[in-house]
Write a structure and sequence with these properties.
With 297 residues, this protein is mainly α. It has one domain: MetI-like (MetI-like fold, Orthogonal Bundle), CATH 1.10.3720. It has helices at 2-5, 15-46, 64-70, 73-103, 109-123, 126-137, 142-147, 159-184, 188-196, 201-212, 214-229, 233-238, 251-261, 265-296. Helix 4 (73-103) runs parallel beside helix 8 (159-184), helix 5 (109-123) packs across helix 8 and helix 13 (251-261) runs antiparallel to helix 14 (265-296). It is globular and about 75 Å long.
Length: 297
């Protein structure tokens, strides 16, 4: 009698969470595919053609555009410029950002205001930042009044490093904020225990702080790597690829120049495809190495 009155348990189908997730995720996945994956795929396809805006017919040329690109001295020049900028941008904001974050790791109103000041350049567009610095780097600008007559943007040996420094300045605030978030996640008990054991500042940083902010180092390094490799606005506004012939041109700048101004859409698409492959490969390698460090620490 008791068994007959017992209500059977309702079985929740495993498909219910899947349907709920799909209802939220599908619109976003659709927009991501439409606005990101489809243009990337179309660019890759164009790299195997001789597409030109003024040519009525488009022919499939296979790997011919990639072969011509690898034989082009200008491509290797802009690739070298891009690697120089990326190397500087990955190292300098990372080191300075960590140092500033350690100084600003205080919970007072003054330090919170300073955090906002450092983060302000990050929210500005590359064009705005470039215009601001262009006014300071011109011959009658503020910096030349301090350091004398220096061709910050007109000297081929200095211009590329000037652009790198400006990009470092813009990305510094991002690194500071990420490192501050990582420092806030370090338990104070660990520092207190290290002080009790007689550890000095450097030993506490090396044995406690540095291992605990490994994820912040990973985030900053990957983001700086991508930012350095896709630099375009700063080159366009500050030097337009000069002085001289492509002495400061980046690979992203060269893609736009060839595709838009040079009307060599197929050639530019092939260059953009190689740029994408390099970014994916380097980002994946760095991410794998740094995440492995997180596990070991």
């Amino acid at each position: 009698m008791l068994l007959s009155n017992r209500q059977p348990r309702k079985r929740h189908s495993v498909l219910v969470p899947v349907r709920e997730f799909s209802g939220f995720a599908l619109p976003g996945l659709f927009l991501y595919g439409l606005l990101v994956l489809v243009p990337i795929g179309w660019t890759v396809v164009l790299g195997f053609t001789d597409r030109n805006r003024f040519a009525p017919d488009t022919s499939w040329v296979g790997l011919d555009q990639f072969r011509r690109l690898l034989e082009d001295d200008q491509f290797w020049l802009v690739l070298r410029n891009t690697f120089v900028v990326t190397a500087i941008v990955v190292v300098v904001p990372n080191v300075l950002g960590l140092a500033i974050a350690l100084l600003l790791d205080r919970d007072t109103l003054l330090y919170r205001l300073l955090r906002s000041v450092f983060f302000t350049p990050v929210i500005l567009s590359g064009i705005v930042v470039s215009v601001i610095w262009q006014s300071m780097l011109r011959p009658d600008g503020v910096l030349n009044k301090v350091f004398g007559d220096v061709g910050w943007l007109s000297d081929p040996g200095i211009a590329l490093y000037s652009i790198s420094g400006i990009l470092c300045w813009q990305m510094l605030g991002f690194c500071v904020v990420v490192y501050l978030a990582g420092l806030n996640g370090v338990p104070k008990e660990l520092h207190e225990a290290a002080i009790v054991d007689g550890a000095g500042w450097w030993r506490r940083f090396r044995s406690v702080t540095w291992p605990m902010i490994a994820s912040a180092v990973t985030i900053n390094t990957v983001m700086l790597l991508i930012s350095g490799f896709k630099v375009y606005e700063h080159v366009l506004v500050l030097t337009n690829g000069g002085p001289g012939r492509n002495t400061t041109a980046s690979i992203a700048f060269d893609v736009i120049e060839k595709g838009v101004r040079g009307d060599r859409i197929g050639f530019a698409a092939a260059e953009a495809t190689i740029m994408l492959c390099i970014i994916v490969a380097l980002s994946g390698l760095v991410l794998r190495l740094l995440q492995r460090r997180e596990v070991h620490l």
